[in-house]
Amino acid sequence: MEAFMSLAHGLSVAIQPMSLLFALIGVLLGTAVGVLPGIGPALTVALLLPVTFKLDPTGSIIMFAGIYYGGMYGGSTTAILINTPGESASMATALEGNLMAKAGRGGPALATAAVGSFVAGTIATLGLTFLAPYLVDIAVSFGPEDYFALMVVAFVTVSATFGDSPVRGLTSLFIGLLLGLVGIDILSGQSRLSFGVPELYDNIEVTTLAVGLFAVGEALYVASRRHVHEEKLEAVRGSLWMTKEDWKRSWKPWLRGTAFGFPIGALPAGGAEIPTFLSYATEKRLTKHPEEFGRGAIEGVAGPEAANNASAAGTLVPLLTLGLPTSATAAMMLAGFQQYGLNPGPLLFAEKPDLVWGLIASLFIANIMLLVLNLPLVGLWVRLLKIPQPWLYAGILVFATMGTIAANPSPVELVMLTVFGVLGFLMRRFDFPIAPVVVGLILGPVAESQLRRALSISLGDPVVLVQSPISATLLVIALIALVAPFVLKGLGQFKATED
């Protein structure tokens, strides 16, 4: 009952004209960038961070969430029409969706993706509404050692799940942790790794790092690549709507996809890729039309798209209740919260209920907006695919530079933007994941603060870190998450040599 009351209060915030406007801007931007290959919601939020730093926090966070949801919707359009997922989470959708488009059924493929996203997003947001208060109650009982162990779990799982190599993920994390040490040490008052540069005393700005790594790095990387093959755009032929048979074959995959996406997205090592491929494999196994898989089966679009959007709502569970980002976009949203001096976690629900519940309520509104906008405007989204890449990325570079200068008018900030841009390019070039760097910079100082608090309370006794059942359990989970990828890789190599 309390959740309903909180949600009703959130709706009163979400239906205010400015909140509705921010939500509309967010879903339009999110869909547009989701459609454009290579430009995901994380990059968009990174670009907007310096621009929105003087705006209303509630409206800006609602807009960022709208971009996240819209990006998940938009990624399916390119996956279906040009077989190029705008987001990695749309890879499973491309398997059957593009084959449907080639067979002249691009309209029903886009329709089942849109309706499935709406169904999954709505159910998952309800899950967020009822699950979040319980997690907050648990998190309130955490001591400093428990929070430190939780941060360790976040570090390990984020590093292990982003990218193909756990070692590269951990390397990226350590770069972020190192950058997090720059500035004045709160306890001793001494400057660390600032090399006498006054602008570095206040720590490295998350926005500068994010814009450099995501926007500038991506633009440099795209410019460095040659065209391997020309992307063929499939025209949307025939009706955009679904037949009675399409509806009959889609509704169960929508529900099953939601059941995969929300709980896995809510895990610290979640993400959207795992539930989308699990959903695809499940639909392939359960289908009554196995002959259509590999030729354009509508279940292979409906299930993964539902899982994709449900995982987006699931990702907000650990972000809002514990302050843990489990995706690149969630990391950027965490940076957005910190830009306004807000720290997601149990205290945020008590200190800023208008913001938290307004954000959750706005997700319902964003889902309705996306359903209404997506299908009628599919022609507009297709036209976006024809924007020449040089124009697109030149515009991103200009926008990134101007936004950073507007937020922090300093030559040092501009030099750092360039350095981080080159770092982002090199990391993409050598296949190092970028999100762990941002997570390391944001959560590193928090983890250090909690560790030092725990050690101060115990008079320097490190045993305090494993005395609490919660911290001991979390550290064991972190150890398993750290070792598991190496064990699985070793077993795979052993089986390969045996064969």
From TrEMBL:
The chain crosses the membrane at residues 20-49, 61-82, 109-135, 147-163, 170-188, 200-223, 316-335, 355-378, 390-408, 414-443, 464-488. It comes from the Bacteria. Pfam families: TctA. Keywords: Membrane, Transmembrane, Transmembrane helix. InterPro entries: DUF112_TM. Residues 20-438 form the DUF112 domain. This is Tripartite tricarboxylate transporter TctA. It comes from Microvirga aerophila.
